[in-house]
Task: inverse folding
């Protein structure tokens, strides 16, 4: 017998504290502290009971999900994007192993982020709509980069709020050149209806210019946004132990082992007016 009922556990997920504020800046993974503590307490007693409670929580949130509760205005095609994700989450309830349903598991936290209106599907990746630009970019790449950062902040008219892109490892079917063009269109459509947002930003290893030699088939991920008005800045060394650069590529793993490739992180800052120009339509 667990120390908390499923009803109480689900109630904790809806506590209206700072973690429930859409503009708190905590991103897609924010959850009420009471819920996190409850999972820890249950898991100490029975780990599988904690998994079961999280599965019940996911089912409850899925059954009660409605776009009417979101603070954002959605283009019509976003209803199809959401339906695709809701069906994926529905399917996972019956096919994923018990340990998938853990608040320590980032893909599961992303699923809850979707159901809590903190993570929005937009195609190849997902966006959280309340992020800001990191001031650390001022000092990461020397004076030249500091000047670029200041210029793009002026273009954007501020450092927040931005749409911030995130990959979901269980949904990569649109992660290809055509899928990304559709994603840019979806981002532009969303920005049109939500004028408070200043643009799009993200940080990733696949924005590294070194990929033009290491993995040239991925160079479009940097090149198209850059040609269409995005500013891309050095953000630091990636973590060699768990970099996404090594997740699906033996080539990159081999080059790293040979000391010929070290993944670097770069941040893309794309002002809303540049996205609304939709210049990718004219890019070869």
Result:
């Amino acid at each position: 017998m667990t120390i908390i009922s499923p009803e109480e556990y689900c109630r904790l997920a809806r506590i209206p504290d700072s973690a429930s504020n859409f503009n708190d800046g905590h991103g897609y993974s924010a959850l009420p502290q009471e819920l996190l503590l409850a999972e820890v307490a249950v898991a100490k007693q029975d780990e599988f009971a904690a998994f079961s409670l999280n599965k019940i929580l996911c089912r409850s949130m899925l059954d009660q999900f409605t776009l009417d509760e979101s603070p954002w205005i959605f283009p019509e095609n976003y209803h199809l994007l959401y339906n695709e994700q809701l069906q994926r989450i529905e399917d996972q309830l019956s096919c994923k192993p018990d340990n998938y349903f853990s608040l320590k598991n980032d893909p599961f936290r992303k699923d809850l982020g979707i159901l809590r209106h903190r993570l929005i599907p937009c195609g190849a990746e997902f966006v959280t709509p309340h992020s800001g630009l990191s001031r650390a970019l001022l000092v990461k790449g020397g004076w030249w980069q500091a000047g670029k950062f200041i210029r793009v902040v002026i273009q954007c008219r501020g450092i927040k709020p931005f749409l911030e892109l995130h990959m979901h490892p269980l949904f990569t079917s649109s992660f290809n050149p055509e899928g990304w063009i559709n994603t840019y269109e979806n981002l532009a459509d969303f920005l049109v209806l939500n004028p408070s947002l200043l643009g799009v930003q993200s940080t990733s290893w696949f924005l590294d210019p070194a990929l033009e030699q290491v993995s040239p088939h991925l160079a479009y991920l940097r090149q198209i946004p850059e040609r269409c008005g995005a500013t891309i800045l050095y953000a630091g060394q990636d973590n060699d132990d768990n970099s996404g650069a090594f997740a699906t590529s033996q080539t990159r793993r081999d080059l790293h082992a040979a000391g010929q490739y070290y993944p670097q992180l770069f941040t893309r800052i794309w002002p809303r007016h540049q996205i609304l120009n939709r210049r990718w339509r004219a890019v070869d």
In short: The beta strands are 120-121, 126-131, 162-166, 199-204, 231-237, 264-271.
